[in-house]
Design a protein that fits this description.
heterodimer, A: Rna Polymerase Sigma Factor, Chain: A, 2 domains, B: mainly alpha, 5 helices, elongated
Chain lengths: 184, 118
C-alpha cells in the first residue's frame, strides 16, 4: 500500500471509486475532524454533528461514482455535509430558532450590554455573533483551521471569510470592552 | 478575566478512531461493490479506454497516410450525370399518354456503370 499521506484527496477518491478500502479510510480520517467542525456549526451539538457526519459519509460513498475526480474533493464533500446538516436542523424542531448558515448576510445582533465587573464570557459573546461570523471565528480561531480551509468548508470565498473574521473580532472586542469602540 | 473558548469537539483520539471505524464499516458494502465492478471486464475496459481511443486514432492515422491515393472522382461523376436535367424525361412526364416500354428503352439506354462501361 502506498503512503496515503502523500496522496492527494482526489487520488484517494479515485482509488476509493475502484473499491480501495484503505484509500477510503485515509480519506475519511483526513476529513473526519473537518466535517465534524463544520457540522457542529449547524447543530451546536456533538451528538447531532456526529449523526450528520456519518450520514454525509454514507451519502458520499454511495455517490462516489458521480464524483468527478478532476474537481476538488473537498468542495464536493463539504457540499454534502452542509446539505445533510441543513436537512438535519430543518427536521429538528428543537433547534428551530437556530438561524441557518445560509442567512449569513443578515446584520449581526446588537452588542450585548456587558457589565465590566462581570466576567466576560467569550463563548457567550461568540454566540451573539451573526451565524457566519460565529462559524468563521470558531473554525479559524477555536478549531485552528486556516481561512482557506474554512472557506472551503463553508462554501464561500476566502476573502469573505476574512471579512467575517474581521467583523467578528471587532464585535467581540466591543462586547468584551464596551469602551473600546474604535479599533487600532 | 476572559474565558478562552475551547473546541466543542471531543479531543480523545479514541473517539475519532471509533468514529472513523464506524464510517469505514458503513462504507464496506459500497466499496466492495465498486471493487467488483472495477475488476469485471467492463472495469478493465473502462480503465484502458483512454489508451484504446488513442491507439485507435493512431491506427486510423497510419492507415490514412499509408494507403495509396484513390480516384474519388468516379463517384462524383456518377452523381453529376444523374443530376443533369433531361429534356426527354420532361417530355415523357408532361405527355398526355404514358410512355411505352419501347420508348423508354430508346430514350433511356442502360445506365452507365461507375467504370464507364455499358
Amino acid at each position: 500500500m502506498s503512503d496515503a499521506c502523500d496522496r492527494t484527496d482526489e487520488e484517494l477518491a479515485r482509488a476509493s471509486k475502484r473499491g480501495d478500502a484503505a484509500a477510503y479510510d485515509a480519506l475519511a480520517r483526513r476529513y473526519l475532524r473537518r466535517a465534524m467542525a463544520l457540522a457542529w456549526q449547524y447543530t451546536h451539538s456533538v451528538e447531532d454533528a456526529e449523526d450528520v457526519v456519518q450520514e454525509a459519509f454514507h451519502r458520499a460513498v454511495r455517490s462516489l461514482a458521480d464524483y468527478d475526480d478532476r474537481r476538488p474533493f473537498s468542495a464536493w464533500f463539504y457540499t454534502i455535509v452542509r446539505n445533510v446538516a441543513r436537512t438535519a436542523i430543518s427536521k429538528d424542531g428543537r433547534r428551530a430558532a437556530l438561524v441557518p448558515l445560509t442567512l449569513v448576510e443578515s446584520d449581526p445582533p446588537a452588542p450585548a450590554t456587558v457589565d465590566p465587573i462581570v466576567v466576560v464570557d467569550l463563548e457567550r459573546a461568540i454566540e451573539e455573533l451573526a451565524p457566519m461570523q460565529q462559524a468563521c471565528i470558531r473554525l479559524c480561531e477555536v478549531e485552528g483551521f486556516t481561512s482557506v480551509e474554512a472557506a472551503g468548508m463553508l462554501g464561500i470565498g476566502e476573502g469573505t471569510v476574512r471579512t467575517h473574521l474581521l467583523r467578528a473580532r471587532t464585535r467581540l472586542r466591543v462586547v468584551m470592552d464596551p469602551k473600546q469602540q474604535v479599533l487600532p | 478575566m476572559v474565558d478562552q473558548p475551547q473546541s466543542q469537539l471531543p479531543q480523545e483520539p479514541a473517539y475519532w478512531d471509533d468514529l472513523a471505524r464506524k464510517i469505514g464499516e458503513d462504507a464496506a458494502g459500497p466499496l466492495a461493490a465498486f471493487a467488483a465492478i472495477d475488476n469485471g471486464w467492463t472495469g478493465v475496459l473502462a480503465r484502458r479506454a483512454p489508451w484504446l481511443v488513442a491507439a485507435s486514432a493512431a491506427a486510423m492515422l497510419v492507415l490514412w497516410l499509408t494507403l495509396p491515393a484513390r480516384d474519388s472522382s468516379v463517384a462524383f461523376r456518377w452523381i453529376e450525370s444523374s443530376m443533369i436535367p433531361s429534356e426527354v424525361a420532361g417530355t415523357l412526364i408532361s405527355g398526355s399518354a404514358p410512355p411505352s416500354v419501347d420508348a423508354l428503352m430508346v430514350q433511356f439506354p442502360p445506365a452507365i456503370d461507375a467504370g464507364g462501361r455499358q
